[in-house]
Amino acid sequence: MSMIQEVPTMTTKEKPQRAIPEGLTPFDLKQMYEAMIMTREYDERCFKLQRQGRIGFYAGSFGEEACQIGTAFALEQKDWIFSSYRQPGVAMHRGVPLQTMVNNLFGNAEDIVQGKQMPVHYTHKAHHFLSISSVIGTQVIQAVGCAMAAKVKKDDAVAITYFGDGGTSSNDFHSGMNFAAAMKAPCIFALVNNQYAISIPVQKQTGVEVLADKAKAYGMPGFQVDGNDILAVYKATREAILRARRGEGPTLLELKTYRAGPHSSSDDPSRYRSKEETEYWLKRDPIALFREYLTEMELWTEAWETEIRENAQARLSEAIKIAESLPQPAWETLFDDVYSYVPQALADQKEDILAHESGLELTNEGEFPL
Amino acid sequence: MSMIQEVPTMTTKEKPQRAIPEGLTPFDLKQMYEAMIMTREYDERCFKLQRQGRIGFYAGSFGEEACQIGTAFALEQKDWIFSSYRQPGVAMHRGVPLQTMVNNLFGNAEDIVQGKQMPVHYTHKAHHFLSISSVIGTQVIQAVGCAMAAKVKKDDAVAITYFGDGGTSSNDFHSGMNFAAAMKAPCIFALVNNQYAISIPVQKQTGVEVLADKAKAYGMPGFQVDGNDILAVYKATREAILRARRGEGPTLLELKTYRAGPHSSSDDPSRYRSKEETEYWLKRDPIALFREYLTEMELWTEAWETEIRENAQARLSEAIKIAESLPQPAWETLFDDVYSYVPQALADQKEDILAHESGLELTNEGEFPL
Amino acid sequence: MADLTLLQAVNSALHEEMTRDDNVVVLGEDVGLNGGVFRATEGLYQKFGAERVMDTPLSESGIIGAAIGMAVYGLKPVPEIQFADFIYPAFDQIVSELAKMRYRSGGDYTSPVVIRTPYGGGIRGGHYHSQSPEAYFCHTPGLQVVIPSNPYDAKGLLKAAIRGEDPVIFMEPKKIYRAFKQDVPEADYVVPIGPANIVREGTDVSIFCYGSMVQVALRAAEKAAESGWNAEIVDLRTLYPLDIETILNSVKKTGRAIVVYEAPKTCGYGAEIAATIAEKAIDYLEAPILRVAGLDTPFPYTLEYVYMPHPARVYRAIQDVMAY
Amino acid sequence: MADLTLLQAVNSALHEEMTRDDNVVVLGEDVGLNGGVFRATEGLYQKFGAERVMDTPLSESGIIGAAIGMAVYGLKPVPEIQFADFIYPAFDQIVSELAKMRYRSGGDYTSPVVIRTPYGGGIRGGHYHSQSPEAYFCHTPGLQVVIPSNPYDAKGLLKAAIRGEDPVIFMEPKKIYRAFKQDVPEADYVVPIGPANIVREGTDVSIFCYGSMVQVALRAAEKAAESGWNAEIVDLRTLYPLDIETILNSVKKTGRAIVVYEAPKTCGYGAEIAATIAEKAIDYLEAPILRVAGLDTPFPYTLEYVYMPHPARVYRAIQDVMAY
Ligand SMILES: Cc1ncc(C[n+]2csc(CCOP(=O)(O)OP(=O)(O)O)c2C)c(N)n1
Ligand SMILES: Cc1ncc(C[n+]2csc(CCOP(=O)(O)OP(=O)(O)O)c2C)c(N)n1
Ligand SMILES: [Mg+2]
Ligand SMILES: [Mg+2]
User: Fold this and answer.
1) Residues A121 and A186 in one domain
2) What pLDDT is recorded for position A363?
3) Do A281 and A358 reside in the same domain of the chain?
4) For chain D, how many helices (H) and strands (E)?
5) Alpha-carbon gap, residue B221 to B251, rounded angstroms
6) Are C58 and A136 in contact (CB under 8 A)?
């Protein structure tokens, strides 16, 4: 039996007027809602950009907004984030500038990494947001190492790492959970169980019924949380963080939700799951659920919704306009940031290409199929 | 809380006359004891050979005889064995000829693999005993694949894999447990918790208190068994095998024991553990415990003990004498068994060496330090 | 004859081999119901069922480790690694186990697993969807490394790999998965593992290449022909074992050698070709051996077209050796 | 001056660097109380405590992944992989993460981890305790690969590695861990990463080598001297970045090149040296470039002395190029 987090879920039939969770003000609640809206708008716009051929690839987080914003609000700036490609809302809430994120999607000259990473692979040092890897699971043990380092330095920071249900099968979920528990690292494992790893449903991914039970292999507390209930997510994350800060070690949080969209711009979910299933989950839309709560709390109005949506759209349009107008990175940048210096072999390659090919009209061929 | 296997343990104070476990006859019990003695004698002799410089390396299983013989007796010839380097008793009981094993230790011309593997890395196809790898944990998922194959072919065979407490931290313990449970593979996971991975005590290896609880992460039954109680081991293994044969999937068995000797001929345990601890466990010697039981059952006599010991020693002396008298493998063998054929590059290397170096007096330098 | 893309040729080989031999099984991430993210396993699940076309958990180490166990038991597993970039979590199983199983058991146990994996750049995939790790595997005794460059070879080589007795890393150039079609016989055929293929005969310079680089080399050769230089293009097809004889004969004829590959230049597969020539045919050389390769950097996203060898860059190399 | 073995030199470098900089931490299997299975970390646990000298669970992937996270945070981790043969479970963390962290974050994040690992044969360890996987890492942009051949360099190079800003695979030739002692200064010094070292000047043939093969080459050179051939021995020390200039200058002087390495010949590091010479100095060559290397097989147990390059085999290569 798993320990289910005792948080009043917003999915229950009777919705009593509830207290605002500890740590949050009404102002925070509105900010959370706004961050969810921004995340959703970002998602929709980016998919559109991809379909229009203006960016090469996109992977969305439609339906997973509560997991992102609920956890993000529980973190402090000193904390560290090791996320996957499906948490743009965490980056945004954290303070990674929208322009920075959109520049990544376009891989333009102002992109922090000058087009060296695919879309949806953000990085931001000032906000302790680690450069995202495509490789499933690798960030989990890195977050643990980071948390161990904070402990060695006697700093108060914790690390949080996000990964999916598929990620629980990876080597470094195992090494990460094991190291963290064995060494009492102040690390939060945010398992976003959106029930699919591309086409593989979670029932094929593992024999265990409740993913939070995976904590039991490591001697770590594990909780299953309604991942579509932002306040439940917030509360569980906050408690895990406080526990970590008290030196009581790591926690696994299974945020149970649903990947309401395709895996990515290359995926066609109709090949492997039914419309009915998706519709069932769409009725549990975390934004709609939170909106009901805010309405009850008299914190939501139609006018405000329009305002924040329009604001989000305007910010997106502006950022996209700028990003799209920027040139590609200069060829010179190709040779930077491999090492702190340019080794001879690479310097020779640089010289050769810049000297002989600068005038050539070279273009990309092929498209990203996944 | 882990499910502790309800087997009358021989460590309990009162030792009532107990029934012989289902599946065994008094004759079997005596054979089991004899196999334990053989394993112990093998171990002692091999360490001596190593100290005398007659073989290059040895890793013993002193104190772990019950884990080996108890599991091995529950297997049938159609079953498959994916072991680590610390189960010589399983190989012997299985029927791998002693001479074959001793030839491996000497890496001589009659060695099945002609000196291509280190000592204690046995292989025997006729007995479904897979070639042993030094790399911790890799055999676990392979056993699962083998079990999956048996299932695909609708054969009745099960696979058993042996690994240590340290092995539970490996990548392929995780992938193996996960695949087996997700796919209901007929596989038995024999976790020999001898409480050390070289110098690392199990408390540093993992945060969980009962290793059998690791099964809970995968939705698999897990049992902790007194690994020094051969009948408990036998009974638990037998039940797991029957379950697997019934198509009910895999089982994790934690066989809790103690590595009473050094990790290997290169190790000095006094650097990292106390004499007292070792002595405490020596009092729980699985052979002594089983001897008490057999005595109670009137199946043991001093004369028989002497007989089987002398028999074991004689067989060992004979096998060692033969193995030691055999020459090294021919240089030609170096180039075999990389592929089913000899690729050009390798053929060139072979020709070069055989043509120009056959007369040279080359010798080994250096010694194995671990 | 059927007009097939390289991807369809792979799919067709899998269908035929699974029909021919009950022991052939396919496993990997999304290979079942979804037919693989590239659709290479399309239709197999429907035809052969979940027992022989296995959707696995997300663990490459698990996929390869399980495949080894299956092969030891007697099946013929053809696991898919979704992108070659994700083969590294399975590196230990490949290098320590798959490659050494026959050797360490004195030939008793074999694990003739055929690992299929799409590799290479040109699809705007950035560094985690574009790598060319063939050199790692060519440096690992016990493995065979095969890379087709066209639909005909893809089908014939994959069939040969599946029927063979040794492990194969079968790398598929995803850039040209759907780039062109080719007539492929309906009748059963194999392309043997080992021999290289001279796809263009020439007298002035030998260009050694494989996978998607064969097209690049051919275009450079056309351009060179305009300058009156006649380039010979050798499609290696099998990287290990290497067809040393064909390579040396070509160099002895032309006196000039260029190797083209997408992977980072340093310690890439081209180094082996150059070293082999420098060891066995140096007297025939009239110019330096040049390598046109990827850069010594991770694979970039936006500027991948600068990173990857392109016809103009290969042509420059031809110019250089001809002018030497 | 202290008379130290290579192993003691490594240990001494670790003691000094941990004293110098609080951010330096050591982690790995058995590195704490036990002082490492080779005793390279002896005394560190007692001096710096469990927080800075961490005994880890048995997971190489975990060790390297955790080290990357620590380095990102600002520590300077020096993980030990007990044998280079066991580095493969960490291959994904090394190749996909460690090597690409700086690149994929545009220089924002760095993970200057120094991975120490004993490598190579000659200790009767069979194929799981004898491998030389340096070529894999040299083919991975973002990594530096360093291999000392003597106590002085071992200490100086390890200190340079720990003080550097980029990841290093620091491979220690375990065969000569205790083979000989050398005077090593008491005062602080570093041997910079990059430059090769001409350990024996010569005029007739250049022998490029590293690690335990330097001793082998030196013995072959002595033998060659008896025949009147004067071999130059270049100890590469750093394999990536490579000191191309020193190599080319040596070949230009001698006109003959031999590369000696223990790893399997095909696609080994020697191929890169040969290819570089064939590309940049071919006109100076008076003979084929020869590679004296390990066989294209896994590393054997009993007959390792036949497998490994030995002085007589190197001498044969010298004879061959001199007679050419
Ligand atoms: C090691 C590895 N193997 C395969 C892939 C290809 N791949 C990309 S995303 C994905 C599924 C991930 O599922 P999950 O962890 O549940 O995260 P989600 O996409 O649902 O957020 C796969 C298989 C990869 N990126 N890395
Ligand atoms: C992947 C890997 N890492 C490190 C080693 C070195 N090593 C050999 S045995 C061992 C400890 C194994 O402990 P455990 O799994 O408990 O088995 P035991 O030796 O106690 O039977 C280690 C670390 C190895 N063989 N493989
Ligand atoms: Mg998922
Ligand atoms: Mg143990």
Assistant:
1) yes
2) 72
3) no
4) 12, 14
5) 5
6) yes
**Which residue from D30, D122, D303 is facing B199, i.e. has the nearest CB?**
D30
- Per the DSSP assignment, residues forming a β-bridge with D184 are D2
Closest atom of ligand 1 to CA, residue A170:
1
Domain at D197-323: CATH architecture: 3-Layer(aba) Sandwich (3.40)
CB contact under 8 A, C128 and A118: yes
**What's the full length of chain C, in residues?**
324
Residue nearest to atom 20 of ligand 2 (CA): B197
The answer, for C90 touching chain B at a CB cutoff of 8 Å, is no
Per-residue model confidence as pLDDT tens for chain A (370 residues): 234 444 444 444 445 456 899 999 999 999 999 999 999 999 999 999 999 999 999 999 999 999 999 999 999 999 999 999 999 999 999 999 999 999 999 999 999 999 999 999 999 999 999 999 999 999 999 999 999 999 999 999 999 999 999 999 999 999 999 999 999 999 999 999 999 999 999 999 999 999 999 999 999 999 999 999 999 999 999 999 999 999 999 999 999 999 999 999 999 999 999 999 999 999 999 999 999 999 999 999 999 999 999 999 999 999 999 999 999 999 999 999 999 999 999 999 999 999 999 888 887 654 444 4
Q: What confidence score (pLDDT) does residue B370 get?
A: 43
Neighbours of B53 (CB within 10 A): 8
Q: How far is the CA of A189 from the centre of ligand 1 (A)?
A: 17
Q: CA dihedral defined by D145, D149, D155, D160, rounded to 10 degrees?
A: -30
CB contact under 8 A, A116 and D141: no
For the Cβ of B135 lying below 6 angstroms from any atom of ligand 2, the answer is yes
Q: Cα separation of B151 and B145, whole Å?
A: 10
Nearest to B345 among C105, C110, C241 (CB): C241
The Å distance, Cα A33 to ligand 1 centre, comes to 28
Question: Is the minimum CB–CB distance between D144 and chain A shorter than 8 Å?
Answer: yes
Cβ-based neighbour number of residue D185 at 10 Å: 11
A67 plus A202 within the same structural domain: yes
Both B350 and B313 in one domain: the answer is no
> Is A20 domain-assigned?
no
Task: Please spell the DSSP secondary structure of C116-169, one letter per residue.
Answer: EEEE-SSSS-GGGS----HHHHHTSTT-EEE---SHHHHHHHHHHHHHSSS-EE
Residue of D nearest to A160 (CA): D69
Find out if CATH 3.40.50.970 is the number for domain D2-184.
Answer: yes
B158 lies in the same domain as B121: yes
Determine which residue's CA is closest to atom 12 belonging to ligand 1: A197
Q: Cβ C61–B141 below 8 Å, yes or no?
A: yes
Q: What does DSSP assign to residue B129?
A: B
List of chain D residues whose C-beta atoms are within 8 Å of the C-beta of residue B358: none
Residues A359, C291: Cα–Cα separation, whole Å: 22
User: Touching check for D93 and chain A: CB below 8 Å?
Assistant: yes
Averaged pLDDT score across all residues of chain D: 97
Least Cα separation, residue D141 to chain C (angstroms): 5
Across the interface, whether the CB atoms of B345 and D265 are under 8 A apart is answered yes
The sheet carrying D205-209 orders its strands as D197-200, D231-235, D205-209, D257-264, D290-294
Residues A297 and A321 in one domain: yes
Question: Domain boundaries in chain D?
Answer: 2-184, 197-323
> Is the ipTM here above 0.95?
yes
Within a domain: residue A15?
no
Q: Is any ligand 2 atom within 6 A of the Cβ of residue B259? A: yes
Q: What is the pTM of this model?
A: 0.97
Tokens standing for residue B304: 């028989």
The answer to whether residue A1 neighbours chain B at the CB level (below 8 Å) is no
Matching fold, domains D2-184 and D197-323? yes
B13 is a domain residue: no
**Is the pLDDT reported for residue B4 higher than 50?**
no
Q: How confident is the model at residue B362 (pLDDT cuts 50, 70, 90)?
A: confident
